[in-house]
Amino acid sequence: MRKLITILLVFVGMNAFTQQFHFKQYSLEEGLSRSGVYDILQDRNGFLWVATEGGGLCKFDGKTFQTYTRFNGLASEKIRIIFQDKSGVIWLGTTNGLTYFNGEDFVSLTESDGIANNYIRSIAQDHEGNIWVGSNEGISIIDSDEKGVSHKLKLNFSLPHKKVRSLQTQGNIMWIGTDAGLCKYDDGKITEFNSSNGLSNDIILTLFVDSNNELWVGTENGLNKINNDTIQHWSNENGLINNRVRSIAEDY
């Protein structure tokens, strides 16, 4: 059976599918701390972690929600991204710093600890285990063992724009989505992709690698796929409901 790439836009319509989908809504009445949700992660134990806009972090066990806030150690109740690394540690990107959960406690890192900026937009882990953190003012590299800014890995290149909205690994490659194009970081070398060499738009909102190891790029104006540095792109003229692509996932 052919796999489908599901593109989550500002508005998602179901008219293109003949299959029936049934949704259960979870909001304040069901225990969610805030109805505004930025990100969701299912951890390796099956729990759902929900990043809210101003309501902190919610953990869902299938029946009830447990909420965590600054009183539990979060840097902020406004959470933009949730990421689980290879060791099972959960990382949270907030508007006021980076927070990680080691299974028992929440610990936060801010500019005073050496990260580039407190407004965290993206998190990824490279093939060597380093945690890359994208912010409004560039990238910070966190040593996953020491849980602090790494002194072993230094970035030796400049970005086309400081705001890093998305990070995505692909083998040994780290893809960096900025507000002025996409960067491919491979073995210390940087290659830039933008609207002048094939991308549909320079503002990169999301990145995703599918099961065929192809990179999908959601932008402010269209969807792109990169395979061996060859770019394809789609817009509402090709059937997208909206050209602003905020999130991409693959069903199974």
Order of helices and strands: EEEEEEEEEEEEEEEEEEEEEE
The helix content is under 10%
State the separation between the terminal residues, measured CA to CA.
9 Å
The computed structural class is mainly beta
Number of strands: 22
Shape: globular
Q: What's the pLDDT, averaged over the residues?
A: 89
CATH-defined architecture: 7 Propeller
Q: Strand content of the residues, in percent?
A: over 45%
Q: Count up the domains.
A: 1
The CATH superfamily turns out to be YVTN repeat-like/Quinoprotein amine dehydrogenase
Question: Please, could you describe this protein's structure?
Answer:
The chain is mainly β. The chain has one domain: YVTN repeat-like/Quinoprotein amine dehydrogenase (Methylamine Dehydrogenase, Chain H, 7 Propeller), CATH 2.130.10.10. 0% of the residues lie in helices and 46% in strands. It contains no helices and 22 strands.
Please supply descriptive tags for the structure shown above.
four-stranded antiparallel β-sheet; mainly beta; 0% helix; 252 residues; disordered N terminus; Methylamine Dehydrogenase, Chain H
